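Example record

One chain of 202 residues, shown exactly as stored in the release files.
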Amino acid sequence: MSNNDIPEIEELIKQFSRLPGLGPKSAKRIILKLINNKENMVKPLAQSLAKVYKSVVRCVNCGNLKIIDKKCICEGKNQFDKICVVENLADMWVIDSANIFKGYYHILGGTLNSDQNYEQKNLLIDSLVKRIKKNSLKEVIIATSATIEGQTTAHYIEDSIKNDSIKVTKLAQGLPVGGEIEQLDDGTLFSAFKNRVPVTNE
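Predicted structure tokens for this chain:
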């Protein structure tokens, strides 16, 4: 009997294949490993996934992950004068692990497409504007990717806060055209942050 005769395994392969960086072959290898170690790997994994599904939610203010019914890190007592705006959690994790930025993070939850209305996208841009007004911030660092969608989003954010008396900068040298933040190495990120440039509104 092959795995093709077991619909449960086929469905599992299909689900794993949807994960970033995994194709059907990689998914099959992972699943085979799990099946051969059901007690040591499948059971703990299933329990962990169930806990995350039940307890972890996205903060409606900053976009970070938080435990349901508990305060998010953005509600802590830390007082920073900068906020870094990124597209997704992976970008924040990369920047944070590189230790090149100390301040607040704001995770948009995606980007705007250049060919669609801004209102159609469920991004946390309104909450970003509210956070900027609420906190005594001196600088907003727009760290969206150098893709068309990333730059479209950056321009919309710039327009949304251009009337506020706050410095707005974006990543500069070191960020390749078309590049995504989570794919950059620490050195490239450091250069992009160090050489960030002011945003000028025309």
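Notes: The chain has a mean pLDDT of 83.
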